[in-house]
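Second attempt. The first submission of Arylsulfatase A had a stray character pasted in from the spreadsheet, which I only caught after the job came back as garbage. Lesson logged: always re-copy from the clean sequence file. Corrected sequence (449 aa) follows.
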Amino acid sequence: MSNPLQRFPRLNNAFVNTRHKVKHWLERRDRDVSYDATVGDPRNVLFVVVDCLRADHVSAFGHDRSTTPTLDAFDGAAFSHAVAPSPWTFPSVPSLLSGRYPHEHGGRFETEYRDLSSEQFPARPTASVPTIPELLESAGYDTAMLTAIPMAAKATGDRFQTVDMRYTPAADQVSRALDWVDGRDRWFLHLHLGDPHAPLDVPADHRETFDVPDVEGLEDWRFREEASGEGFEAYADARRRAYDASVRGADDELARLLDAVPDDTVVVVCGDHGEAFWEHPSLERRLNDDPRGFYATDHGHSVLEEVARVPLWVDAPTLPSGTSDERVSLVDVVPTVLDALDVADAPATTGAELGAPDPSRPVLCEETAYGYDQRAVWVDDAKLVVVPGLDEAVWFDLSADPGESDPREDVPEDLRAALDSVDAGVYGEETMDVDDATRDRLSELGYLE
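This time the job returned cleanly.
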């Protein structure tokens, strides 16, 4: 253990957060906000990301356990088939905040084969790509990111006036959010909850709610190399129950946050990516050469549905309430929010405004963190997965095969053309830097060996 303070979580949180705040101040002290946004309908804006939240584990979207009663009652638009721009946090959050895919904002690896586990780190997004907190800061908003996941802050923390990075569960994060917004006139807050991310934060009361058994290694992962063997089925069921209990814990805390913010606040809630629970071990071995030897668990290694499909909720005056199964992307959030705020002369984004379905529009997920890079493109219910480093390409008809059990090789030309239309893009500037304390936390979260 390189950081002895890890034995004292409260003290370690304060230490890590203070170091990060100092670094954040140094990054921003000579920085000018180079945008000049004009907001015609000024409203407060709240983004909430629940890390690792799968769409099919949302109770209103058909899950058989009551994981999300707060979000089920959300007064706004709900999208059950949103696509994460990337299967892990570092590239996905900049896409959410910029309305551009990873190959466009540059927060990505420069190598085809990648191994985050051995500290091969990606580049941060290019400074020239605008994000919504920067645009709103230029219009007089206070901006902050409060996060339990360091990857979010490492990717985009410098785009906010304030960053608070503490490895604490939703109850503490929501309390800090309420403290931050209290008394502010005009604000943009990005709150990133880490409860469903391994190691899980499972509230004691919801262990009983979901009948979570006392099984060894439940908060983290076992059976990562092989989805078989003595005790696997019992462990897998218990691990899913524990995940659901952690989602319910985060959902409970969101109730008091959503009740407290002003009624005219523009609210966005989503997962930044999903989480795999042993759905496709054989297919993943075909489509990946994971340097860790892990298949079909966790995230960052695959663009299959369990990792790529996330839920999205948006409460904005420009969107009708109700649930939609339209396939949308998290890059659609920024243009939708800018339109809701009536922001004049906003920079162009790749995303499209939500609420205007276009089944012919390609949607992307890209930039894995382990093994050869993978790219997926959806056109309506057809999905193509390409792994150039392994010369693999398979496609799925999700209308007939939503579980991706039947990979096909005769790729339709329109799917090929959709992926070929995406250019190589840009790469970021400096590589993500990690100090010893953050390295310890990334190891605990499973990113590093």
